[in-house]
UniProtKB/TrEMBL annotation:
InterPro entries: FlhB, T3SS_substrate_exporter, T3SS_substrate_exporter_C. This is Flagellar biosynthetic protein FlhB. Residues 1-28 are annotated as: Disordered. The chain crosses the membrane at residues 31-50, 62-83, 89-114, 187-209. Belongs to the type III secretion exporter family. It comes from Sulfurimonas aquatica. Residues 1-24 have a biased composition (Basic and acidic residues). Its main location: membrane. GO terms for cellular component: plasma membrane.
Length: 350
């Protein structure tokens, strides 16, 4: 009995779906961060001329005000212009970062809307438990990880920075525009190197987060038995299982149509695919059958695979009504089916 209570089994689809409804999904902060940072860097590079132009216009406006007497109305005008220009510079970047955050979330766990994750949990605001969590081993490990990642990323960035400083004596001889280009290029290199390091940390974090998530959802054998027992009594689950079984059966049946010798049709309402292998069976076998839409699908697959389609309404209706899938045809239909197969074999020889 003790073994039945140990959580050693992988979580079922229902367990994962229930956790998802509760807002419990595997989410890596590092993965979200690296996607957001990448988009931010890309946005800055793309929007740099636009942002620089607005910055230039703002400073130009400030310089044009030199010597103008200050009053209340004048100060309000300055504030309005400043806020407008700063918003125009920052807003596109903020939108890009916000979209990146949404994309990062969708990439990790898809679209998720639940109110349970944001409902207040008064147990979490217990000051005693909060103090214990603050100084828990898990929090300390998280702090060490964050510190290590920060020092590693910044350390590599500073190494490149000091390496580039050696070029400054030469760069000072350049024209101002060339100096700015040099500075921009070096900043891009440092940003990309730091981004690469953060990306490596993010990949590792995703692996760890997903493992911890699924380990946390592991079930005992007894829990799986109880879940199956509950599901078996649920009419909706029963309906879904039956629907899935029918879908699998249809797919398996349709996969046999290309191997058939002939498809006998009504011609519009019924279609029955026949296969005869005299070395394996004593009589032809019905490998697929259907009516209406299914009949049309069978005929379509038959045409695509070069299987002969023969119109014989009485025979098609009889085969559909009297013969189950994967079963041989009855003796009373031997003659009619034999005539069809003989005709097909003759056509194949031609």
């Amino acid at each position: 009995m003790a073994d039945d209570q140990e959580k050693t089994e992988e979580p079922t689809d229902k367990k994962i779906e229930d956790a998802r409804k509760e807002g419990n999904v595997p989410k890596s902060q590092d993965a979200s961060g690296v996607i957001t940072l990448f988009v931010a860097i890309l946005a800055v590079l793309m929007l740099f001329p636009f942002m620089a132009d607005h910055m230039f216009q703002l400073f130009k406006y400030y310089f044009s005000l030199v010597g103008t007497p200050l009053d209340k109305v004048f100060m309000i005008d300055i504030a309005i212009v400043s806020i407008r220009e700063i918003l125009l510079m920052v807003l596109p970047l903020a939108i890009a970062v916000a979209v990146a955050g949404v994309v990062a979330a969708l990439a990790q766990f898809g679209f998720l809307f639940t109110t349970k994750a944001i409902m207040p949990d008064f147990k979490k605001i217990d000051p005693i438990k909060g103090a214990k969590n603050l100084f828990s081993v898990k929090k300390m490990i998280e702090g060490v990880k964050i510190t290590f990642k920060a020092f590693t990323t910044l350390g590599v960035g500073f190494i490149f920075f000091f390496f580039f400083i050696k070029e400054l004596p030469t760069v000072t001889l350049f024209a101002l525009a060339d100096q700015l280009d040099w500075l921009k290029d070096k900043m891009i290199i440092i940003a990309l190197v730091m981004l690469l390091i953060i990306f490596i940390f993010a990949v590792i974090d995703v692996i760890i987060v997903r493992k911890q998530y699924f380990d946390g959802l592991k079930m005992s054998k007894q829990e799986i038995k109880d879940e199956m027992k509950n599901m078996e009594g649920d009419p909706l689950i029963k309906s879904k299982i039956k629907q899935k079984q029918m879908e699998i059966s249809r797919q398996r049946m349709m996969s046999e149509v290309p191997n058939a010798d002939v498809v006998i049709t009504n011609p519009t309402h019924y279609a029955v695919a026949i296969k005869y292998d005299e070395e394996k069976t004593r009589a032809p076998i019905v490998v697929a059958k259907g009516m209406d839409n299914m009949a049309q699908q069978i005929k379509k697959v038959a045409r695509e695979n070069g299987v002969h389609i023969i119109q014989n309404p009485p025979l098609a209706r009889s085969l559909y009504a009297e013969v189950e899938l994967e079963k041989p045809i009855p003796e009373e239909l031997f003659g009619a089916v034999a005539e069809v197969l003989a005709y097909v074999y003759k056509m194949n020889k031609k």
